């Protein structure tokens, strides 16, 4: 195995484990693909493909919660996420490569900050979820979901925390239901993004498929580690990784 493939598969294995433990897997896959020499836009597209299979397993794990929700609401949210993911992916495809490279460290810093503040943010926003929804709540939810989906189609980092916080802020008081919606709509918008990137010819399929397999293995191992490692250790590692990768890109 060449050094490049060792780097890519190791990053994907670690990304799968991180996503199972706490999230933040794209902090590993995107820089690894940059290091392997992929063009910036193609690296982001290939990274999205590599981490996408995990969303399917997560969604299936919340089948019972999703079955209890109104079908009309699920279709509405999924439709918004599909359109937002399409818009975000399209925006990425028309972004000049040099501009995307300049934006990446700031996106990584933003995603790291969202991840670090995630527990506090969700606790604060849950207070709103416990209160009766006010007038215009449905519109606020739709607009917020569209904005987060565009971000997710453009850059996947921190997506799960943003979706979870949005649902908690807009009236979904049950954390398991919020998680179910988060996983379903992460799957929807990432699938649309993957199809868009594939249509545009930006996915490097050998790397994407090889890394996807490694990410699935990493996810399985990560699920086992959740029973042994303190959550605070994992969160600290993800935050440190995000800061390190952002600093590395800034120095470039």
UniProtKB/TrEMBL annotation:
One of its GO terms (cellular component) is plasma membrane. Coiled coil: none annotated. It is a multi-pass membrane protein. It comes from the Bacteria. It is found in: Cell membrane. Belongs to the 4-toluene sulfonate uptake permease (TSUP) (TC 2.A.102) family. This is Probable membrane transporter protein. It comes from Ideonella dechloratans.
């Amino acid at each position: 195995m060449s050094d490049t493939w060792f780097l890519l598969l190791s990053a994907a294995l670690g990304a799968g484990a991180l996503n199972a433990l706490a999230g933040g897997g794209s902090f590993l896959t995107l820089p690894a693909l940059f290091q392997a020499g992929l063009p910036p836009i193609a690296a982001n597209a290939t990274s999205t493909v590599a981490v996408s299979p995990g969303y399917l397993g997560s969604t299936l794990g919340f089948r019972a919660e999703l079955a209890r929700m109104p079908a009309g609401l699920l279709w509405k949210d999924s439709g918004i996420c599909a359109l937002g993911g399409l818009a975000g992916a399209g925006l990425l495809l028309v972004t000049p490569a040099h501009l995307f490279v300049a934006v990446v460290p700031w996106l990584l810093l933003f995603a790291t900050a969202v991840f670090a503040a995630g527990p506090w943010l969700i606790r604060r926003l849950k207070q709103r979820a416990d209160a009766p929804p006010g007038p215009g709540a449905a519109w606020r939810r739709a607009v917020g979901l569209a904005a987060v989906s565009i971000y997710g189609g453009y850059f996947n980092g921190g997506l799960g925390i943003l979706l979870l916080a949005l649902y908690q802020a807009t009236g979904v008081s049950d954390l398991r239901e919020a998680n179910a919606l988060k996983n379903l709509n992460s799957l929807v918008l990432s699938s649309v993004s993957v199809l868009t990137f594939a249509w545009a010819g930006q996915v490097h399929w050998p790397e994407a498929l090889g890394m996807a397999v490694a990410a699935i293995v990493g996810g399985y191992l990560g699920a086992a580690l959740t029973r042994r490692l303190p959550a605070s250790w994992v969160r600290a590692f993800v935050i440190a990784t995000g800061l390190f990768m952002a600093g590395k890109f800034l120095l470039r």
